Each structure stands twice: as C-alpha cells, then as structure tokens.
C-alpha cells in the first residue's frame, strides 16, 4: 500500500509505504497521509471476520494498510497489543477479552461501544498501544530512534506516555494546555517519572499546542536533525488502528452482514469519526455517522452550513468535556480531501486559508451538495445538556458515563429520528467517568468508581515544565534534552 499527501507532495521516496509514514507523521508539504485508495472489503471477508477475536480482526484490517511488515510479524504485534490484560477496565470484567464490548442501554437499539478499557481509560489507548509496539518494531529493524512531539487536550498525552514509557529509542515531548485539563488527566501525565517522558504545559489552548507540533514538523531541517515523529492522529497509523473498532462494533450490534449500524462519535480533532468515515468507504454497512461536539462547535457548524470557521484561542471555550476543546480539527483535512474528489490542489488552497487564520465556505459548491452521500449528521451539546444526560443515563439505565460520552448520547437522542428504523445506534464511549469526576459529582452528587491501579494518583509528585506557546523555545527545549 502506497501513501499520498492530502496536499499533493508526499515526499521521498515518492508515495512512501506504511513504515516510512509511521515515522514521518506529517507529510513534508504540511498535508496528511492517506492511502492511495481505500481498500474495499468484500462480503466474503465480512462473513469470515464476523466472529474473529479483536487481535485477529485488527490483523486482517491493518494488513490491508500495512504491506511492508511481514504478515507473521504484524500478526504477532496485534496479538501482543490487544489482550484482556491491557484492556482490563471493562464494565463487566468477564467481557474484557472482547476488548471493545457493547454495553446496551436499550437492547438492539442504543448501545455504548466501550473504547476506554485500556490503561489510561480513554479511547486513545486503542490505537496508541499499537503505535508503541509498531514504533518499537520498526525502530529496532532500522536501528533508529525517534523523538515524538505531541499535543494533547488531556487524553492523547497520557495514552502516548503510557504506551511509550521506558521504550528503547523513543522520547516523548508532550504539549498540554496549562490549567485546562481535569485534575485526574494532569496527574496521569505529570506524575510519570520516566526519563524518556517530558511534559510541557503551554500557556494557551490545545490548538496552540497542535500549531506548534505542525510548525516544528514543517521545519524540515529541524525535523530530520532531531528525528521528530508524531503520535497525534495526524499520524495515519492512529487513524488506521481506530478503523478496527468500527468493524468490531458493527459485528457486535448485528447478526448478519445484510444489516446496517449507525455510530455517534464525540468529536474534537475529527480523528475518531474520520476512522468511521474510512470504515464506511471500505464498505462497512454504516447507515449514518452522527458527529457530536461540545460548545466548541466548529465541526457541527460545517456539517450544517458548509462553512468551516476555525476559532481563535480567545473564542475557544474551556468546557467540562475538555478533551474536545478544539477549534481547528486536524483530521478534517482528510475528510475534505475525499469530499472534494481527492483533489490535492483544492485541499492545499482551502488549507492556505485555514493556515492564514481564515474560514472557507463550501456551502454553494457542487461538493457540499453531495455531502449527504457521506452519511454525516451533526449536533452540539452544552454543560447543562451534559449534566442532564449524565443524570438521565444513570437514572434510566444505572450506567455512569463520562462528559464526552454524554455529549455523544445527547446528540444521539436528538438525531435518532434520522437513523433508519431498526438500525442499531452505537455511541462511542470515549473515556471513563473517573477522568472527569468534578463534573460527575456536580451531576450525580457522587464520585465515580476508580480502578485500583489508578488509586491516589493525584497525590503523586508531578514533573512538568510550564512554557509560553513559542515554537523556538520548544525547539530549544527539545534540542537540550536530545543532546543530553
Ligand atoms: C475523551 C475524548 N472524547 C472525544 C475526543 C474527540 O476525538 P477526536 O479528536 O478524535 O475527534 C477526545 C479527543 O480527541 C477525547 O479525548
Ligand atoms: N482530544 C485529544 C486531542 C488530540 O487528538 P488526537 O486524536 O489528534 O491525538 C487529546 O485528548 O489529547
């Protein structure tokens, strides 16, 4: 499988393969990597995959995207990654082996696809654990090392650090928005004392941190000289790994491949739902993809109006679903590439506007007129909605959900009428409630359950550098740590 850039210049070698882009992260023209074409899944394959355990399903799907790792090695990497021991926080402990079990709220109609049973209690672990093992494998084969520069609004950071801590040849520099994450999220990241982990809290929003990651990656000399890699969903490997659970969820919610499923996805950087879009393009029978935002509703606005208007930091709200406090969604570029007929010149022109801090308007375009073909619908949620949804789900079903999943359930209820009758609707559970206990207490007047392995982490000593969102200062910080 060869990869191309959304902006047309995929770099050297021309149209690289998976292992190159795994280490490369962002394409050299500032665009994002995508496969030359999406692999199609046949009906026979769907039939054969229906009962596969998660690790084997992951191997089958990933081997369509990863053709430069021998099959036996990729199978072993998947088997090592997707185990009940790693994804041990399932609601029903005896279902941990399913890795992403469905918890039905209304059997056959409305369910939660549990994606947050990994070590850091958010869906990021689903891909990040795989990335850790892939990096280790490829770096050892090539005798290379990597310095990962990432941006987090709260969950990518801890998932990456847990996946990479202590790994040979890997350092992680993680930028987070100072003072904007929950106490639990801060403790998860900043309490790690591993020598290869560096936490930097930038005095800005997530978007400022993500802009720094892109600016550093676009300095080609610095990137090459310091072996800079990416773990955000700008790295295609993250998105590819996330495609797998859409298939797993589909099989769990249906009894035959003649049926369809709809998914509702709490969204910020558009990585999770982008994987759902790709699963649908591959031929998974997905009736609808419902996108849910919080008060930072830039994506909802686009799907309703055709206008994409990234907000400035001052217009970005600090909310009680903080991991979705994002106003410039990086993976949205991958979707727009498909929407405009995979025309890199059009994408480059649109993102020249975005990079200059401006909006773009596709509302009158022929492309936006075809948007319904992609199956997207959208909605937004507020703090009051979140509290009401957490309460209602707890009272009606006895299930405690986190604030981001609550945004998803709120929008799922709102848009359920647009899902064809008889089609099950799965809301992706993107984090566990303990990560956001402040809001859970506000909604329910009680503390969420806490897994024993994460007891008392807020009391541990923390290690973090507070810095201005200054690209040159961050580069200097990295250079000093890399030189030692
Ligand atoms: C808990 C949680 N829910 C939802 C999201 C949104 O996912 P995405 O950025 O892939 O759209 C994030 C972060 O990205 C998250 O951490
Ligand atoms: N919500 C994310 C933001 C980064 O998203 P990513 O999927 O692009 O890594 C976070 O929790 O950090």
Automatic annotation (TrEMBL):
Name of this protein: Threonine synthase
MF annotations from Gene Ontology: threonine synthase activity
PANTHER family: THREONINE SYNTHASE FAMILY MEMBER, THREONINE SYNTHASE-LIKE 2
Gene designation per UniProt: thrC
Enzyme class: lyase
Involved pathway(s): Amino-acid biosynthesis
Domain of life, source organism: Bacteria
A Pfam family assignment: THR4_C
E.C. no: 4.2.3.1
Signal peptide segment: none
UniProt similarity note: Belongs to the threonine synthase family.
Organism annotation: Thauera mechernichensis
Threonine synthase N-terminal domain boundaries: 2-82
Keywords noted in UniProt: Amino-acid biosynthesis, Lyase, Pyridoxal phosphate
Needed co-factor(s): pyridoxal 5'-phosphate
Known catalytic reactions: O-phospho-L-homoserine + H2O = L-threonine + phosphate
